[in-house]
Hints:
The complex is a heterodimer. Chain A has no helices and eleven strands. Helices cover 0% and strands 52% of the residues of chain A. Chain B is built from no helices and eleven strands. In chain B, strands 2, 4, 5, 9, 10 and 11 form a six-stranded mixed sheet that branches. In chain B, strands 1-3-8-7-6 form a five-stranded antiparallel sheet, with no helix packed on it. In chain B, a hairpin with a 4-residue loop joins β7 (60-65) and β8. The chains are: A mainly beta, B mainly beta. The A-B interface holds A 33, 41-45, 48, 55, 57, 90, 97-98, 100-106 and B 30-31, 33, 41-45, 48, 50, 87, 91, 95-103.
Amino acid sequence: xxMVIQNPRYQVTQFGKPVTLSCSQTLxxxxxxxxxxKSSQAPKLLFHYYDKDFNNEADTPDNFQSRRPNxxxxxxxxxxxxxxxxxxxxxATSAASNQPQHFGDGTRLSIL
Amino acid sequence: xxxxDQPTEMTATEGxxxxxxxxxxxxxxxxxxxxxxxxxxAPTFLSYNVLDGLEEKxxxxxxxxxxxxxxxLLLKELQMKDxxxxxxxxxxxxxxxxxxxxxxxxxxxx
Lengths: 112, 110
């Protein structure tokens, strides 16, 4: 049974058209993360929530926003996607910040 | 700043043993994780070290030396399905920053 679920698996959007990626979890974990991973590169942390506390990485572009309306759900909003934002976006959860992270299958975003 | 290094690629033979190294320089240290990632899939957790020494989990073992800023992942009795990228990730002292290394792409040959 999938414990970290990302929808959709593949997303296509147009240059400059806002897009939202979603993540849900059944683990009741406090911490949720969003990563961007480009081809042949390591995942890069964009931001994470510890419960409701939002933590933005210093080099995450302002174009990327996130919402966590409750424990189970977290959203990644890209306000004006550029061609350079085409990537795999991974959501992960952990029970605490020093615990292993459990990843969803990712959403592969393409920009036309 | 944070800096994590891993070899880019490695090749090994089915049934053999391979050691994948990871060196790190981070502002504080609060644990090192190893993940396996098959192409097009999400990373899956393999092991966690926070104290010096060896952690063994079946065919996989991971070692940590905090004084040297060094870890390795040891894979025994290699199988074809072990062909994947292996990512070393470090959490900093405050537990807020979690940084992945560039990953090592392992190819297991028959």
